[in-house]
Amino acid sequence: MTDTFAKATPATAPPASNPASPRRARGGFRRVRSIIKHALLILCVLVMLYPVLWMVVSSLRPNDVIFRDPSLLLNDLETGNYAEGWNAFADPFSVYLVNSSIVVLGAILGNLVSCSMAAYAFARLEFTAKRWWFAIMLLTIMLPIHVIIVPQYVLFAQLGWVNTFLPLIVPKLLATDAFFVFLMVQFIRGVPIELDEAARIDGAGHPRIFAQIILPLMVPALATTAIFTFIWTWNDFFSQLIYLTDPDIYTVPLALRAFVDAQAGTNWGAALAMSVVSLVPIFLVFLFGQRFLLRGIATTGGK
Amino acid sequence: MQRRLIFKGLGASAVALPGLAACGTGGGGDVELSDEPVTIRMTWWGADTRAELTDQAIAAFQKEHPNITVKGEFKDWAGYWDALATTTAANDSPDVIQMDELYLASYGDRGTLLDLADTSDFLDTSGFEAATLETGKIDGTQYAIPIGAGMLASVVNADLFAQYGVELPDDTTWTWDDYAAIANELTEKSGGVINGTGLTGGTDAGSIRYWARLHGNELYGENGDVTLDPAVLAALWEYSLALIESGGAETAAETVEGQSAGLEGSSIATGKIAMTIAYNTQITPLLAASGADLRLIQLPGAVETTANFIKPSMYWAVSSQSEHPAEAATLIDFLVNHEAAADILGTERGIPANPAMREHVATDLDEGEQLAVDYLESATVGPAVVVTPNGGSGFDPTCQRYSQEVLFGERTPQDAAEAFIEELKTEIDAAA
Amino acid sequence: MSATSELHNLGQGGARAKRQNKTAFLFLLPWFLGLFVITIGPMLASLILSFTDYNLLQPAEFNGLENFSRMLGDERLHQSLGVTFTYVFVSVPVQLGLALGLAIVLDRGVRGLAFYRSMFYLPSLLGASVAIAVLWRMVFGADGLFNDGLALFGIEGRGWISEPETALGTLITLNVWTFGSPMVIFLAGLRQIPRMYYEAASVDGASRWRQFLSVTLPLLTPIIFFNLVLQIIHAFQSFTQAFIVSGGTGGPADSTLFYTLYLYQRGFGNFDMGYASALAWLLLLIVGAFTAINFWASKYWVFYND
C-alpha cells in the first residue's frame, strides 16, 4: 500500500527553495486577502472565546450579578472572589494546585516513557500475535470507568494505595493509556524507515535506534502526549474523587466541585474565580509546550 | 510471576465483592471505647462553609477526646454518593456517614449501617422527640440520627409584589386556586416583565408528598410500597400546565432551565418570578443571591390541614464496617447533643433536630436563619412521612424526566403519571 | 509494511524474527505489567458481574443472561443509543472537519500562528470544569447570548438548552467548540511531514492545491485516522459534559441521555451495577465493532511511510 505513494514522492530530491515563496507578484491583492483572513480568524476567536471571557469577567463580579448578566461589561469590580475562593477550604487553594501538579507530572512522565516504548514495539518490531495484542490494547480503553472502578478499588485497596497518588500515577507508568500508544505508533510509522535502516547498517540495535533516531524525531508526538496527559489528568474527576479521601491531598477538580452545593447554596463568584485560577497552569503549559509541537521532522528531517 | 498476579488481582475482587454484607461488627456486646489512639473517618457532602464549620467542630471534639483522631472528608453531592457506594462495596467505607432521606433505606436495608441501639451507651438519643427519631428508623431499627429539620414553604418576593401593586396573599386561608389567581395577576400587572410563579412542584418528592396529602393520598404506605394515586399526580401536573398556559407561570423551557441552575440561578433568585416553593432553610442562600425582601409564608392549604411535614435535612449514621463504632457514636453524640458543637455548626445543616440544641442556637441567628426558624415554629406540622424505601433513591431524576415529558407536551399527565408510578414500583420491587 | 518485512526476511531469515520477539517483549514490558496486573482483573470482574444481579452493597448473585434479555425491552436504553449515535455521527465529522481545516490554514505560515493556536485551544482546556454548566446556560439559555445574537436578525430565540428538541444540539456544539484538541494533533502531524517531499513536488511544478492533494493529505492520513478512531471512541463514551450541563439527569426528558450517563445512573443512582456492567460490555462491543470497521477501511485510504 505504501509503494504506490513512494513513487509519487521520490525520497531523494534535490534541495529547493521554500514552496511558498515562488509567488510574490500581486502584493496588494495578497495583503487584502491576508487582512480578510485575519479578520475572519479573529472573529472566530472572539465567538469561541466568549464563554471563557464571560467566566473571567464574572469571576470579578459580585455574586448576585453573575446570573443576571450575560454581557462582558464589568460595572463594579469585585476582586474579593479570588481571596474567598483561595481560602475557602482548610487548605489554601495552592495546596490543590500542587497536588494536581504532582499527579500530572507523574502521569506525563509515565506516559512518555511507557507509551513510547510500547509504540516502538508495535510500529517497528515483528512479534507473535502483534495484531491481537494491538486489538487487546485498544479494547482496554473501551469500558467506561464506572463499571471498572469497584474491582479496581478493591485491587488498589489490597495494595494499600488508597488515599495516595499511586492509583493515579502507577497505571500511567504501565502504559494503560492506550490512546497515546496508538498516537505514537501513527507518528513512528510516519518516520521514514530508511533512517532506521541506515542506523542498523551502522551497527545500532533497537534500543539505540529507539533512543537516538525515533525519539528525537517524534518530539511532536511526545509533546502532544504530554499536553494531552496534562489536560486530561488535570481535569480528571472520577478516579481522583474515588482514590483521594484526605482533603489535604485533594486535587483541583475535587476542590472545584466541592464549591457547588445545589441544596444549601453555592458561592459562584469564588467557584468561577478558582476555575480561572486552575485554567492558568494548563494555559501556560500549552503556551510553552506548543513550541515542541513544531519540532521534529519539519526542522530536522530535511537536512 | 505474571500469572500469579492475575490470580491475586482477580481473587481480590472475587473474594471481596461477595464478602461485604457479612462484615462489620455485628452484635452489640463488643462495642466499647478503646484506650489506645484511634483514628476514625467521617464523610459528608457540602460546600466550603460546611467544610469549615465541620472542621472546627472536629477540632473541638478532638480536644475533648485526645485519643481519637477524626479524618474529615468532604465531597460534592453527586460525587459523594459515588464514592460512598464504591468504598462500601470494597468494604472500606468511612466510619461516620452523613446520610440523606433518599438513600437511608437503600443503605440500611442492605446491612451497611450499624443499628444504633448497639451504641446507645455512647450516643444518647433521649433528647430527641419520638417522631423525629422515627424518621431515622427502617423497619423499627434506628440506623440514623436526624441532624436538622426542614419544611416546605412558599417563598414570596415582597419587593416585586409592592412594585406591581399586588397584595401579599393571606396565607392562613389561601388555596391553590388563589395561588394561581395571584400568579396571573402578577404577570398581568407587570406587563409580562416577570411571571407570577415558577413551577409549583411535581418534580420532586417533597412537593408531591404535600400535594398528595392535600388530596387524602400518600406517596408511600407504612410498609414502603408506593401508594400514590396516578390521578392525583396527574392533577398536579395539569395544574402546572394550566398555570403555564395562562402565563401565571414561566414557560416550560424557563422552568427546566431554572431546575439545573442551582439556587443562585433559579428564577426566584434572579427576580424573574415573585413566588415559588422551597425548603425554609434555603431562604438564606436565596436572600443572598436575590438581594430582595423574600419572605416565607405557609403553603396554600397548609393552615387548615395537617398536610405539611418535617423533612429531616440529613442524618448521621455509623457504617457497619466500622472497626471503631464506639468512637464513631461518641463523635455523633458530640455533634448532635453538645452545645459546644451547636455553637460552631449553628443551622448550617438545617435547624437542629434536637430541641435543646434548637433552643440553644436560637439566640444567635442571622436574618435568613431567623426567618427559617420562625417559619418552622409557626407551621402546622402533620404526621411524619414514611422514609423513601430501598430502591427509591432515583425518585427525583425519574420524576423530573416524566414531568418534563408532560411540560413539553410529549405525554399526557395521566399517561405520564401512570408510567412514572409503574417505574417507581418496579425499582422498589427490584431492590427489595 | 510488506516491503520492510520482506526486507527482514531476505536479510536475516527466521533467527531475526525470534530475536525480535524478545526485544518486543522488553519494549512492551511496562504495558504487559499494566495489562495483567491492573487492567485485566477489573475488566474480567466487570464481565462476570454483567451476568449477575449486583447492587454494590450486597453480594452479587448470578442471574444468567437476564441483564442482556432485559436490554431488549429497556426503552431508556434505546433512547440513550439514539442520542449517542446522533451525537457520534454529527459531532465527530463536524469537529474533525473544522479542526483539520483550521490546522491547515494555521500551518500555512499565518502571522501570529502561536496566538491563534492558543486561542482556539483554550476552550478544550476547560474540560470537565463545573463552570461549563454556567457558561453554557449563559450562551444558550432563554436569556442567553445566542438569543441576543438572533434578535439582531429579528429571529425569535428559544430556550435552547432546556427544550428537548434542541438540548442535544447545544451539547454537540459544546463538543465542536473543543475542536482545539484534534487540531493540535493535526498540527503536530502536519509538522512531521518531511519538507523534502514538498521540495520535490514544487520542483515538479505542482501547484499548492496539487501539493496539498498529493503530499499533505496522503501523509496526514495516519493522523486523520488516529483522530477519527480516537474521537469516535471518545464520543461513544461521552459523559462529563452531559453530566455537568444536565446535572446528571440526561434531561430535559432524556434528550441528552448519553449511553454512559444512563449506565452510570443505573450503576450508581439505582444500585444496579450488574446491569450497568452488562451495558458496559454492550458498549464495548459497539465501540469495538466501529473501531474494527475503521481499521478495516483504513487499508483503503491510510498511507504509511514504512
From TrEMBL, chain A:
Q: Name one Pfam family in it.
A: BPD_transp_1
Its subcellular locations are: Cell membrane
Gene Ontology annotations for the cellular component aspect, listed alphabetically:
plasma membrane
Report which superkingdom the organism of origin falls in: Bacteria
Q: Where does this protein have compositionally biased stretches of type Low complexity?
A: 1-11
Family annotation (InterPro entries): MetI-like, MetI-like_sf
- Which residues are in the ABC transmembrane type-1 domain? 97-289
Its placement in the membrane is given as: Multi-pass membrane protein
What broad class describes the main subcellular location of this protein?
A: membrane
Q: Where are the transmembrane segments?
A: 39-57, 96-120, 132-156, 168-188, 209-234, 268-288
Q: Which UniProt keywords apply?
A: Cell membrane, Membrane, Transmembrane, Transmembrane helix, Transport
| Keyword presence, Transport | yes
A single BP term in Gene Ontology:
transmembrane transport
Chain intervals for the UniProt region annotation (Disordered): 1-25
Give the protein family: Belongs to the binding-protein-dependent transport system permease family.
Indicate what this protein is called per its UniProt record.
Sugar ABC transporter permease
Taxonomic lineage: Bacteria, Bacillati, Actinomycetota, Actinomycetes, Glycomycetales
From TrEMBL, chain B:
Which keywords, in A-to-Z order, does the entry hold?
Signal
Quote the Pfam families the UniProt record gives.
SBP_bac_8
Question: In the UniProt record, does the keyword Signal occur?
Answer: yes
Could you say which residues form the signal peptide?
Answer: 1-21
Protein name stated in the entry? Sugar ABC transporter substrate-binding protein
Q: Which InterPro entries match?
A: Bact_solute-bd_prot1, SBP
Task: Tell me the domain of life.
Answer: Bacteria
Q: Which SUPFAM superfamilies match?
A: Periplasmic binding protein-like II
Does Repeat appear among the keywords?
no
Automatic annotation (TrEMBL), chain C:
Q: Name one GO cellular component term.
A: plasma membrane
Provide the GO biological process annotations: transmembrane transport
Membrane topology note: Multi-pass membrane protein
InterPro entries xref list = ABC_transporter_permease, MetI-like, MetI-like_sf
Q: What is its main location?
A: membrane
State whether keyword Transport applies. yes
Transmembrane segments annotated in the record for this chain:
25-49, 85-106, 118-139, 167-190, 211-236, 242-264, 276-297
Q: Which UniProt keywords apply?
A: Cell membrane, Membrane, Transmembrane, Transmembrane helix, Transport
Where does this protein reside within or beyond the cell?
Answer: Cell membrane
Q: Which Pfam families match?
A: BPD_transp_1
Read off the PANTHER family from this record: ABC TRANSPORTER PERMEASE PROTEIN, ABC TRANSPORTER PERMEASE PROTEIN YESP-RELATED
What protein name applies here?
ABC transporter permease
**Organism source for this protein?**
Glycomyces algeriensis
Lineage of this protein's species?
Bacteria, Bacillati, Actinomycetota, Actinomycetes, Glycomycetales
